[in-house]
Amino acid sequence: MSMSASPKIYPGTSTPLPDREIAALIDAHPKPASIARYSYGTAGFRYEASLLPCVFVRMGIFAALRSASLGGEEVGAMITASHNPEPDNGMKLADSHGGMLDAAWEKHAVSLANAPTSKHALILIRTLSDYAKGHHNNSGDGKLPPMVVHIGRDTRSHSPPLAALVIRAARAMGATVIDHGEVSTPMLHHFVMHANPHLLPSIIPQRCNESGYYEIMAMSYAALLRTGAVSGGRRLSTTSKLVIDGACGIGALKIGKFQRIFSMLRAEGCTAGLPVLQTVNFPGDGPLNDNCGAEFVQKQQLPPKIYTKSAGGISKQYITSFDGDADRVVFHYEDEGRKFHLLDGDKIAVLVSSFIQEELRCIDPDGKAVKCGVVQTAYANGSSTVYLKVSEKWHLP
Q: Considering the entire predicted model, what is its pTM?
C-alpha cells in the first residue's frame, strides 16, 4: 500500500571534507552575539528561527559523528519547535534505538554548538572523530565508520532551509543522509528505530518507511479494539467519531492515511468500533499552535479554536488535540451541561495501565509471571501516582 513519497537519499563516502572546508561552512553561519549560550534539554535546541543556522550546521556535523561513534548505526535529527509559536524552531536528536540522545553525548552536542570559533569547533570534531575511529575502525585505514543520518521536519516555513543546512553539514562529514521531508516527530523516531533492526524488539515487524509506520500504528490500534471486544468491552455511542485538532501542524496532514486503513478494515468487517476521523486545523488554516493544539488545551482548560472554515458544526463530545509536531496528545470533551473535561497524559496513563492490568490478569491471575511498571516524571499529577500505587498496585520506578 503506497501512501507517501519516498525519502530523498544522499549517498555518503565516510570521508569528510578537508578541515578548511568544514571551517568555512561553520564560519559562514557564526554564533549570534545575542546568544550567550545554547542549551539542549528534553526539548532539544529551541530558539527563534533566525538564531539557529549556527546550531544546525554544527548539529549536522555532530549527528554524523554520533552515527560514526556507534559503528554506523543510523541516527536522526528532527527539525521542529513542537508546541512553541510559529516563529520559533529547534532540533531534537534521536539515537539509534529510536529514543532520545544519550545524556553523555548531549554534553558534546552543547559543547560543539557553543564553540566560539571554527578553530575551537574543529578541535571538538577531531576529538569525536578520533573516538569513533578508535572504537569502530576495523579496517585500520583511518577512515570514519559509515554514517547515516535521518532528517525530518515540521511544517514551519523556515524548516526547509534549516533542514538544508543540516543535510549539507552531515554530507560534508561523509555521511549518507536520508531526508524524509515533512513528518511528525514520532515518525522520525520510528524510521531511526526501524533502520537499526538489530536493536528492534523481536515482536515488532521491521517497517522502515512511512507507509509501514501507518500500518503498524493503525493495525495495532485495531488489534487493541478487538481485544476489548473479546473481553466484553464496549464503546460509548459518542465515540463513533473522533475530531482531531491538528494544531495547524504536521499531524493534521497525516491523519488521512490512517483513515484509509480504518476504512479498509471496516469494509472487511474484521474490526468493530473504529472511529470515523474528522481532522480540523490543518497547516495554513491558522497560526501554528495558536489557541489550538495540546499545549493550549491543557494550559487553558479550554477547547481549541477551530480555524478550518469547511468544518461546519464540530461535535465537542470526543476530541483529541496534537501539538505542532504531533508527539503529544490530549483528549477532551464537553458533557451534556457543556462542562469541559480534559484527559491529559496522567489520566491517559491511568486508563491504559488499568486496561493492561486487566489483560495481564487473564494470563497471570497471581501476578507472578509478568511484572510491569509505569514510568512517570516529576511533572506527573500526584493524585495519579497515588491511584496507580494504591488502586492499581503498579510499580512506579
A: 0.91
